[in-house]
Amino acid sequence: MIRVTGIVKVRHRILRGTSGLKINRSRITGVLHQKESQQFYSLRRYYPKFELTDFIDQFWLVDWNLPANKTHTQRNLPDPNFHLVISNDSVKVVGPVTKVYNYMMSGKDRIIGVKFSLGALQHVLSLPHVEYVDKEIDASKIFGERLTEALASLLVIKSDALICEILEKRLTPHKTSVCDSQQSVQKLVSLIKDEQSIVKVSQLSERAELSPRMIQRYFRKHIGLSAKWLIRKYRLHRVLERLDAGEVNILDVSMELEYTDQSHLIRDFKQIIGVTPNGYAENRHKHD
């Protein structure tokens, strides 16, 4: 198993609401133009009960009510987890994504989501994780038609607490024990997310006291994306934070985040986000 020495991390800040739900008040990452876009929807995030934390990372619920002539396209760069997404259109499982994920909102509607812990669905997937990258799968192919139909009915329930309670009850039978390599990859990803100084796989290897080859095996088995790609992704999360805060000097940002040069940052940003950093900054106040 991975050995992480010298630090003690608190995984999440957990507060209990009056309903008994564990409210996730940790910083939201990977949401493009977050400050400007949050006016269009209501997002709530909740943790599962303790015994399910190795299976479910969090529940998330989004509601919106837009004027008849208004739409909003929300763009996210999510974590590499599998998500169960329940909407009026479908109940689907979304695999890890390598590009910005777009969702258009109009009228009055909602989405209910489950973010699974890394590697948690391995036992119910018929193919290796890499085959699900940038793919959406009908949830019935993974959880069966009966459960999928039951999940679709959650959209009419108004209580977040009841929705989360039913999700826990329905999904618990699909939980299995966590293997050592799954625990290791979860800790490796936490290191990448939390340690800004890790910008290369060799640094991750040294920090975790695992060989690069072993790290690659863990990522291929439980995520389907490489450690190198995840390092790029979370560095871009930090770039997005700087740009959303109004820091548009790309040279300063590239130096702070230890890019080899400004062109390296611009290339990575455009490849994954779809626009240059300056283009992103210019569009901060523009919406559909």
Summarize, please.
This protein has helices spanning 34-37, 140-143, 145-152, 160-171, 180-194, 201-208, 212-222, 227-244, 250-256, 262-273, 277-282; strands spanning 14-16, 22-24, 42-47, 56-65, 71-76, 83-86, 91-94, 101-106, 108-116, 136-138. With 288 residues, it is an alpha+beta fold. Keywords: DNA-binding, Transcription, Transcription regulation.
Features:
288 residues, Arc Repressor Mutant, subunit A, 2 domains, two-stranded antiparallel sheet, 11 helices, 19% strand, globular, HTH_AraC, transcription regulation, Homeodomain-like_sf, transcription
Your description of this structure?
- The chain is of the alpha+beta class and 288 residues long.
- The chain has 2 domains: 14-174, no CATH class; 180-282, Arc Repressor Mutant, subunit A.
- The protein has helices spanning 34-37, 140-143, 145-152, 160-171, 180-194, 201-208, 212-222, 227-244, 250-256, 262-273, 277-282, and strands spanning 14-16, 22-24, 42-47, 56-65, 71-76, 83-86, 91-94, 101-106, 108-116, 136-138.
- The strands form 2 sheets. Strands 1-2-3-4-9-6-7-10 form an 8-stranded antiparallel beta sheet.
- A hairpin with a 5-residue loop joins β1 and β2.
- It is globular and about 50 Å long.
Low-confidence stretches: 1-18
Number of domains: 2
Average residue-wise pLDDT:
89
How widely separated are the two ends?
47 Å
Structural class: alpha+beta
Overall shape: globular
The biggest beta sheet is recorded as: 8 strands, antiparallel
Total count of strands: 10
Query: Within the largest sheet, what's the order of strands?
Result: 1-2-3-4-9-6-7-10
Helix content: 25-40%
Our estimate of the beta-strand percent is 15-25%
* C-alpha-based Rg, rounded: 19 Å
